[in-house]
Amino acid sequence: MTEDILKIEDLRLNFYTYEGVVQALDGVDLNLRRGETLGIVGETGCGKSVTGLSVLVIVPPPGRVEGGKVLFSPKGRPIDLLRTREAILRRIRGEFVSMIFQDPRSALNPVYTAGDQISEVILNHKRKELIQRALERMDEEIKSGRASFLAGYYKKIYEKMLSNPRAATLQILSRIPIVRRYKRILNDEAKKEAVNMLRIMRIPDPERVVDMYPHELSGGMAQRVVIAIALACNPEILIADEPTTNLDVTIQLQILHLIKELKEKFASSVIYVTHDMGIIAEMCDRVAVMYAGNVVELGKVLEIFKNPIHPYTQGLLESIPRPGVPFISIEGTVPSLINPPKGCRFHNRCRYAMDICTKVKPEMVEAEKDHFVECFLHQ
Amino acid sequence: MNSVNTLIEVRNLRKYYPVFGGVLRRKVAEVKAIDGVDFRIFKGECFGLVGESGCGKTTLGKTLIRILDPTTGSIYFEVPDDIREKINELENSGELEGSRILKDIRKKYDLATYKGAKLNSIRRKMQIVYQDPTTSLNPRMLVKDIVSEPLIVQGLAKGQDAKKRVLEILYKVKLTERHLYRYPHEFSGGQRQRIAVARALVTNPEFVVLDEPTSSVDVSVRAQLLNLFQDLQKDLNLTYIFVSHDLSVVECIAHRVAVMYLGKIVELAQTEELYKNPVHPYSQALFASIPIPDPTVKKRQIVLTGEVPSPVNPPLGCRFHPRCSEATEICTKEEPELRDIGNGHLVACHLVFH
Question: Looking at chain B, which residue has its C-alpha nearest residue A322?
Fold first, then answer.
């Protein structure tokens, strides 16, 4: 069995709203293995996206993580992301763990070009590499005699940037108009990298697209730009939060293939959040079914589709429309998480509910090998 | 198919939206949202309309019930058989005398020519359920007022009569008396959509346009709504046009399905036939791109390259040819017609006939 690259233990998260405390996550346990695609599936408001956000520690207020651990182990010793300093988190986000957001229109900043937004990530995480490349280019230009008269001065600044990026002189120079144009070489290099990224995303004519603003892009293209931002630094974990919900099926298929392909190429592990069972079947190795802030079932995709144990998973699979069969639905609606039902949160919609379900919260148990379930029917 | 049962017949329907530009805000171009569509809807059937966003599905649905005015074309609603034949005859003859008679007939039966009070009264027979009930229901009106408003506007009932009728219809959509004096925000998504359905059905329509009615609700609620639609259709003898981009839902609810691409119908057939044996390359790609919720099935996938072109300047010839893997020379030049390949399976593709 391969090792876990990410392990979420008993994660609790509340939203403090005017109506009351929304207990959005109530002890989520998950693990992501190296190189796998883990699907998270569930209805609206079951906490799928919030789980993704808390891995990056970017839960928006009024949300607050109340307890638990998010253990990330890139190499050897795991670190708990929830107890890491912000400065270190900033390095981890984008470089080691990154996210594709649901709605590309709102994920992109409308006043920056696609290229600007991709190069921002590259400038932050691959700075040294870029400086080195810029220096090489300047050397070449000086040798061939094409360099401007400022080349010597620029070269000195860049060497300084490499040896001591926080030097006081740099801080001052970077604030003086005209003088700070030395940055252009660096930005040029970042833009080249951005074009390269767009080419990997199979965007036609990337040199033109790199200078376009989000409103000029179609939905599919915008989503590719968002993916390019997420993958710009070959992250080890990629969290895809419903990346194809707003797209058409044909474009959705393009994006799904792209994510699959890039996952192989960059050897990342992927957490794929969706509510579409079809996508889960197509994309994922394992799947976690979430309901009202709990993971109720976790196991291999084949296993879960063939032999769903939790009544909620069974209901979800039954509600997939099939021609010739009457539509079957899960009775009732998702309960409000301000006053969640006591015991098992699914009990008031469950057809097998017993007395104990209304009182005690079930524990996660391994029903079969590598197939975990949180239900009293199997304890 | 028996033509006696035709409820709606659409002929050469077009809807162009003007694009204004320049300093003087003059019309500089047209968005060809629907560009020549012909089809029939039979009584009591559920007609599915699928396609990618921007292909004109919703525009077509709205034009059919005259929420939008068509640019050209006719929509014949409940035309008796003999007159239908006469229309066919007249349209083909092209004589001056004939065109005058045709004009009279169109005035009587063609929805596209209706105006004023006549249009208003026919609207009683055709209703629409919109995509998102949070925006289609007025947040400041009580359920009672929302549902009874069509009755009052149409002058069908007032006061106690209206209330009785509202209750009757609320029970039909599985809401109760308790819900009468509440506002839309007090309901869940599925219940709100039920209110919208009740509002559509309160005037006893014959024809209902369902414009992506399940796209804003969760899977478990979606099944409840679809069951409701099917039950109501049987109970009230309704004819639906079901607009959706969710192909698996359409497969389950529709009797016949039309696939649209850039304002044109490219394929139309019985649901089973179409899903099993799509002929047009676009339908093939579209159906192949539905993710199948079964991990054991590994199917052939056709990944379409590129995106839908702009409907302002649709490609010449077959509109699909820039994305079609099998396009030949004729596809770039001539626009294919919608032709029957047997069993009421209509396809617009050059390849099928060569």
Answer: B252
Max Cα–Cα distance, chain A, nearest Å: 85
With CB atoms and an 8 Å threshold, state whether B272 touches A256. no
Contact B227 A254 (CB under 8 A): no
Token couple for B282:
């676009």
Q: Are the beta carbons of A24 and A67 closer than 8 angstroms?
A: no
CA distance B14 to B63: 9
Distance set, CA A300 to CA A307, A308, B349 (Å): 10, 11, 43
Nearest CA in chain A to B299: A282
Instruction: Say if the Cβ atoms of A302 and B296 lie within 8 Å.
Output: yes
In this predicted model, what pLDDT tens digit does every residue of B275-295 receive, in sequence order?
988 999 999 998 888 888 887
Interface probe for B, chosen from A37, A246, A249, A254 (most Cβ of B below 10 Å), is: A249
Please count the helices (runs of H) and the strands (runs of E) in chain A. 14, 12
**B224/chain A closest Cα distance in angstroms:** 6
Residues paired with B10 in a beta bridge: B39, B75
Q: How far is A254 from chain B (nearest CA, A)?
A: 6
Residues of B in contact with A329 (CB under 8 A): 220-224, 227
Burial (CB count <10 Å: 0-12, 13-18, 19+), residue B28: exposed
B38-B44-B45-B47 Cα dihedral, nearest 10 degrees:
50
* Residues A285-317: b if buried by 16+ CB within 10 A, e if exposed: bbbbbbbbbbbbbbbbbebbbeebbbbbbbbbb
Q: Which residues pair with A290 in a beta bridge?
A: A295
Residues of B (219-278) whose Cβ lies below 8 Å from A: 219-224, 226-227, 230, 245, 247-249, 251-252, 271-272, 275
CA distance B243 to B57: 6
> Could you give the ipTM of this predicted complex?
0.81
Of A215, A195, A193, nearest to A207 by C-alpha is A195
Question: Does residue B255 carry a pLDDT above 90?
Answer: yes
- State yes or no: cis peptide before B80, omega within 30 of 0: no
Chain B: residue whose CA lies nearest to A247 = B53
CA distance A263 to A230: 12
Cβ pairs A/B, distance under 8 A: 117
Q: Tokens 């700075």: give the residue.
A: A127
How confident is the model over A72-83, as pLDDT tens digits? 988 778 889 999
B248 interaction partners in chain A (CB closer than 8 Å): 278, 320-321
